[in-house]
Protein: Biotin carboxylase
Organism: Sphingobium jiangsuense
Amino acid sequence: MEEMRSIHSVMPYSGASSAMGNSHDHATRSELGRRIARLCNAEFLEAGRNGFGGAAATGAGLFWIPNDVLTREEAAELGISRADQLFGGVVPRPFVGTKIVSHGLLADNAAAPPGWAHGLAARLADAVLRGFSVFSAADARAAGRLLLAHGPIRLKDVKGTAGKGQTVVATGAELDRAIADIPPPDLAGHGLVIEQNLEDVVTYSVGTVSLFGQTIAYWGTQRLTLDNHGEVAYGGSQLHCVRGGFAALKRQLLAPELAEAVDKAARYDRALFDAYPGLFASRRNYDVALGRDGQGRQRIGVLEQSWRAGGASGAEMLAFEAFAAQPDRAAITCATVEVYGDVDAAPPEAALYYSGVDPVVGPLSKYAVEL
């Protein structure tokens, strides 16, 4: 494969948002880089404090693993102009990489950042849950009250990850208090997602990853666990992977709810990439929720996108390794697992991504395994 032959070095990159990761995140991304380097017979370069390896380098032959989506300007500095140069994605404007793009505005003349794709909401309407994206307290209060007529709602910090930064409210008074707690500059600068709340939720992971001319697609489910502080945290993902993209995934014999989740993820993906020229990504992962709304009706909708290395990436990599070792293999089921409180939880056959005591989260094991 020409793409594989042209890569001589793989390295992680921590940009402006490097503070978002704990040491286990950085270690996990490094292990992912080592495995990608082995897959394409390239050298792995550990990132330095400035985000580069031993020496600053850009241009052809480098394959990057950023800690977050890159802006167009960050990508240009690294010499990235195509999806096959990184494990992740590049956005034309910073807000495009957040969950704020999942919903439309309260009104056409509502506050929004420059470059907002006003026509996108119509294309996403039946692929997402009922909700709004807002950039002012007045719009937040108005949008929230419209949605409260149908049941409890969820306020979501657009920069939050792993379910953090979210608040469920059921009354106008609770809504007003929650909005009052948001600093106006944060609301105006980053926005707020207000969305119908679901109960009895199952969260599917649906996505595609392309590496060196090969593509896999998958559906899976996420598992929650308790962290070392007794709080709910991400505990891993189980993925069912096939060769090919969304079309290959749709050809699988899927249960009706799962087939709907896959279809909505594919339509969300297509709509976003059509709406924002200059957006490109090698990893295109989508969280899709299945649950009951305030009236007890079943709802399925895309929650958000992830165009960067994520919690399921160890399983994605395991699929690429298996398909490379067994060219005739068509599918694989694998999982990532995160175990708090135990640094030796990984079984011998697992691909170990982290084992140690993180300074922030404490004892933790992270691994991927074929099921």
The chain has a mean pLDDT of 92. The domain at 200-370 is CATH 3.30.470 (D-amino Acid Aminotransferase; Chain A, domain 1). The radius of gyration is 20 Å.
